[in-house]
Amino acid sequence: MNRLFKTASLKAALFYVGVAMVAVGAVLAVLYWQIASHLIIRADNAVWRDAAIATYIYESGDSDALVAYVNKPVGGVIYRLSDSLGAYRGGNLEKFPTPATTHRDENDWLHFTYKQMQIRARLLQIDADVILLVGHDRGATNALIAQIKHSFIIALGGLALLGVFGGWVMARRVLKRVDVINEGLHKIMGGDFTARIPFMHNGTDNGDEWDTLTTQINDALSRIDSLIVAMRQVTDNLAHDLRRPLTRLRARLEQMPTTDAAQTQAALADIDSILSVFAALLSLSRMESGTARTDFETINIGAMLGEIAALYEASFEEADMRLVFVPPPQTITAYAHYALLSQAVVNLLENVLHHAAKPKAQVHINLTPDLIIEIADNGDGVPPEELSRITERFVRLDASRHTQGDGLGLSLVDAIARLHGGTLQLSLNKGLVAQIHLPQKSK
Amino acid sequence: MSKMTILLVEDDTSLAELIATACQARGYALTHAPHATPALAVLKAQHFDVLVLDRMLPDTDGLTLLQSIRQAGYDMPVLILSALGEVEDRVQGLQAGADDYLIKPFAFDELEARLLALVRRKTNTQEILKLADLTIDPMQRQVSRGGKQIDLTSREFALLMYLYDNRQQAVTRKMLLENVWQQQFHTSTNVIDVHISKLRAKIDKGFAQSLIHTMRGVGFMMGVGDE
User: Fold this and answer.
1) Of A243, A399, A282, A222, which is closest to residue B186 (Cα–Cα)?
2) SS3 call for A144
3) Residue-level pLDDT, tens digit, chain A, 443 residues
4) Cβ contacts (< 8 Å) between B19 and chain A: which residues?
5) How many CB contacts within 8 angstroms connect chain A with chain B?
6) For A243, which of B105, B187, B194 is closest by C-beta distance?
7) DSSP B162-187
8) Residue B227 domain flag
9) What is the CATH number of domain A2-143?
10) Number of structural domains found in chain B
11) What is the C-alpha separation between A29 and A149, in angstroms, rounded?
């Protein structure tokens, strides 16, 4: 749900809803203003008409006729005839409303309430001593205006709701499509280069822009896949072709009648170090193309680490260090390749032995229930600026040029972590802290 | 034990010749078959103590050949040879019924040590085992030397048993890692040597005769006599 609010499509939808609300709101406001002023003018004209009639009756010379006329008004109309001092002379409004309850607007209209009627009235000087107040009940008009205003607000609210709902539906659809693409890409990043992104509608391309995108991604993947297959072919051929002469070379050297056994041993050791680099490179490239994903099984990581710790404790002791592993109380399992994952842990431990050996140092192996295997030493670590480089192939820090190692150990750990869908994270605390993060649920 | 007989199925003839020469020098009888068909033919005609199969053969896959050999009822130990860097192949090989697995290129000593371990008659764990003045009781897991009780951890005991099982012949560090610790990883340290020297400190220290020997360039050997 939280992710939904972060989607670009929901944000875009909300933005458009906002813009539409402003535009529609403006149109409705103009419309409202015009309707309202039209209704008010019409009502005012009715007042003027009644005033004209009264004036006509008075000017016809019959003052009594005017009194009779204003005494019997039609419903919703009030009259008050008075002299110039305000004394009552006729009409249905005997008492003039007090100034406190009367509002006089800028156009000299009087507003007050009389017998629950909302009166809008006007004072007219018909003669020197004759003043007439003509007023109309505006309740109906005001109610109409209020109703128009009300329905406009409802319309605007409905528009907002519809827009947000539409945006939400759209965002969900987009998110679903993006999720399908993401899931496919995640599999591929894990090394399954044969994975493809499925079409949403019955598995067929219905020609919309999403399916076009899907097709494009799948085409790109097929291209990458065929390149990787070709690369693997080259690697395999290379391995196969080099294996023969190297195997023979080693066998010949072993059996060569020798006068200098030490030289032969040294030559064999050289071949073996070439071979170990070669083997590490081959397994790296095989892992990076994801071919070692077979043979994954559910393994007890705690037990695996226990075995390795038991094996290496003595080596650390011999180097005057201490290897500490406290197995977690619960059984922690992961879907992993036993041989490769233990190789990764061994490489990290041997990395400490080769490069971080320091008398009295402690090395901790930790395992957390969220599948983080941590190997932390309190040696000298590495320069912080070199941290990101040490997993690169053949990178050997200056400080370790003179020690043994082929510069592939940590690359291999990194490749193994990625083969498992996890990561290798290196940081510095007291010494180097290496963490292999395995995915929580992997299959 | 009489001369060990080996059938090598390997399509690289010059490598096969090199292995044959080495075998001859050490006193083993090696027969070479370049691919699967002659291998099956020669198996019918002759008994072999152990089989060495290349993983990739011109006419068939080494694992397929292994399956047909097993189906035909031959139960001698089989060692598979495979190309470099194929971590996952080992499991497949062992699942297909191989007894051991070796990655090319290999040291001849490594191949020899493994073949000897494969054909070695398994130790009877019901009886008390003796080597010079060392006594091992596999049932009670008790070890003593010169009448003196020696306390071993269970892993040290397993290591001692593996050395004893292969006494008087060399075992390599890789064999120990695979068989005593059941681990497949490659190591660039002397992790096995450290365990051997701890075991040696318990077994040999204070005795005139050493029972655990280091074989330079090969590995270790348990036995009496020459070092």
Assistant:
1) A282
2) helix
3) 567 777 777 788 788 888 988 999 999 999 999 999 999 898 889 889 988 888 888 888 777 888 888 888 888 888 888 888 888 888 888 787 777 788 888 888 888 888 888 888 988 888 888 888 899 888 888 899 999 999 999 999 998 898 888 888 888 888 888 888 888 888 777 667 777 888 877 777 777 888 888 888 889 888 888 887 787 777 767 766 777 788 888 888 888 887 888 888 888 888 887 877 777 777 777 776 666 566 788 999 999 999 999 999 999 999 899 999 999 999 999 999 888 899 999 999 998 888 877 888 899 999 999 999 999 988 777 777 777 777 666 665 555 545 555 667 788 888 889 888 889 998 888 888 999 999 876 44
4) 251
5) 124
6) B105
7) HHHHTTTSEEEHHHHHHHTS------
8) no
9) 3.30.450
10) 2
11) 9
User: Quick check: B198 contacting A, CB < 8 Å?
Assistant: yes
CATH of A295-437, one of 3.40.50.300, 3.30.300.30, 3.30.565.10, 1.10.20.10: 3.30.565.10
Concatenated DSSP letters of A302-322: HHHHHHHHHHHHHHHHHTT-E
In this structure, are B10 and B114 located in the same domain?
Answer: yes
Using DSSP's 3-state secondary structure scheme, residue A32 falls into helix
Query: What's the gap in Å between the CA of B169 and the closest CA on chain A?
Result: 19
Amino acid identity at A250? R
Q: Strand locations in A189-261, DSSP E? A: none
Q: Note which residues in 87-146 of chain B have CB less than 8 A from chain A.
A: 87-88, 90-92, 103-109
| Backbone conformation region of residue A86, classed left if phi is above 0, alpha if psi is from -120 to 50, else beta | left
If asked whether residues B89 and B174 sit together in one domain, one would say: no
CATH of the domain at B178: 1.10.10.10
